[in-house]
Amino acid sequence: MNNFVKGILFGVGIGLLVAPMKGDEMRKMVSERFGELRGYLPENDQLNDYRDQLSNRVSQTASNLKDYAQQAASTVKSSANSLSNTAQNAGDEVKSTGQDLSDASRNTLNKSSNNL
Q1: How far is CA 61 from the centre of its chain?
Q2: pLDDT digits (tens, 9 = 90+) for 23-61
Q3: Over the Cα atoms of the chain, what is R_g?
Q4: Do 99 and 107 touch, CB atoms closer than 8 A?
Q5: Is the pLDDT at 115 greater than 70, yes or no?
Q6: Which residues contact residue 26 at a Cβ distance below 8 angstroms, ignoring those fewer than 6 apart?
Q7: pLDDT tens sequence across 65-105
Q8: Cβ distance 10 to 17 under 8 Å?
Q9: Kindly report the CA angle at 109 between 104 and 113, in degrees rounded to 5?
Q10: What's the angle, vertex CA 35, arms to CA 31 and CA 37, rounded to 5?
Q11: Residue 29 contacts by C-beta under 8 Å, 6 or more apart in sequence?
C-alpha cells in the first residue's frame, strides 16, 4: 500500500512538471469539469432516498439473518435433545437386556446345580 501511494504521488509530481497549462488555467479547467460532473450526480434528496432504501434493506437482511440463526439454533437444540433421549433409551434398554440375560443365566445355573 505504501508503494502504491508513493507511485501516485510520483505520477502527480511528473504530471505537474510536464503540464501543458499554467496553474491558473488548470484550476479553472478543473473547476469547470468538476461543475459538469457535479451536474451528473443526483440531488441531495435522491441521495437521501437511496441511503434510506439501502439502510432499510440492510436492516431487513440483518433481521432475516438473525431469524435464520435463531431457527438453526432451535433446530440444533431440538436435535440434540432428541439424540440425548434416544441414547438414554438405548442405554436403559441395554441395561434391561443385560439384567434379563443375567437373570436367565442365573436361573439356568441354579436349575443345573439342583439337577446334579
Answers
A1: 12
A2: 788 788 888 888 877 777 767 777 788 889 999 999 999
A3: 40
A4: no
A5: no
A6: 19
A7: 999 999 999 999 999 999 999 989 988 898 888 888 888 88
A8: no
A9: 150
A10: 115
A11: 21
Q: What is the 3-state secondary structure (H, E, C) of the chain?
A: CHHHHHHHHHHHHHHHHCCCCCHHHHHHHHHHHHHHHHHHCCCHHHHHHHHHHHHHHHHHHHHHHHHHHHHHHHHHHHHHHHHHHHHHHHHHHHHHHHHHHHHHHHHHHHHHHHHC
C-alpha cell at 36: 459538469
Query: pTM value?
Result: 0.44
User: How far is CA 70 from each of CA 7, 74, 80, 82, 102, rounded to the nearest angstrom?
Assistant: 49, 6, 15, 18, 47
Q: C-alpha cell of 55? A: 439502510
What phi, psi does 42 have (nearest 5°)?
Answer: -65, 160
In the chain the first and final C-alpha atoms are separated, in Å, by 96
d(CA 106, CA 55): 76
C-alpha cell, 107: 436361573
